[in-house]
Amino acid sequence: YSWSAAVCTPKNYPAEIFSGHLIVGNTPKSGYVYMPFDRVINSNNLGNNDGSSSGEASGISPKTLDITWLSYTESKSYSGIFKLDSDKIESLMINGSKRPYWNKETKKSEIFIDRRFVINAGLFPGGMVVLYVFSQSNMTIVGKYQAHEDKTVDWGIAHEIMKTQEGIDETIRVNIKDLPQEILDQIKNGTIPLGYWETLFREYNLTPQVKAEDKVETILINYINGEFESIFLSLNGNMMPIKKRAIPRKVNIVWHDINDRRMESDIFFDEKKSKAIFENLKDGESIKFIIEIDRNTKPRETKGISIKLKTAYSEVEMKDAILSQESFTKSKPY
Questions:
Q1: Are residues 57 and 2 in contact, defined by beta-carbon separation less than 8 angstroms?
Q2: Quick one: how far is CA 288 from the chain centroid?
Q3: In principle, which of 71, 73, 219, 264 could form an S-S bond with 231, CB 3.0–4.6 Å?
């Protein structure tokens, strides 16, 4: 297996890495892969593989993350040296990531084992760092850490203009001036919601559920905590994996319509409205995430998929939390 490095941020909370290394040994002189630096990162979504590292590592998992970065919305630098759960990281990589693919020559679905990964560091205001392992099929959290504010960082080494405080202030101004007014007000009033992001990582006993007659082939779920999961029902006897999950941000589902035509649908959710619904449920209860499909839905239609949550005590429609949806024809299953 091999891996490279990437970084992400919450949307509209840009950051820039001053120095970052994923170290593969247990000493400072061990080999490492650089984290993406010398560019401002402002991700559209948590878990995006933004930036590009110089180089990659093969056949060995990282042991340590050593990182320093600037949080532009706070005008603060953070640093931390974190011992990683290298065994957990290696366990995700060593056997590769299985996924089906469509063989054009045989016109059949076959299994491909992907052995290329990305280790992604999520950088949050307040100094929280979340480490993800990405494959083409899944994005998995492998650790959360807390960095400390670092007032000793010499940003003039990275950018000539930042050799003076005036230059630092101007660089920060340029990189935040186009942020939404809501964020600018937070910066002005000192109300950046530092505790909010921790709530994104709450997990639920959440299990997707579909109907057999909809002939669902795959379900791809992106979660608000930056993880995503591919459920290839053809690979596991149509059994839905039982596990804890965060709140969905987006669902992509491949199914068959009333004429047995293969269709693909994207459903996007409003983060705050979804959180309000989930947080109103009883703690610890099992939740069925029921995906209902109108099999008469036509291509380009923006309706036809409905979602509801069902527990032993309640049933809640997710209609008000759906931002948008659209369906398309799909020629190949994968």
A1: yes
A2: 22
A3: 219
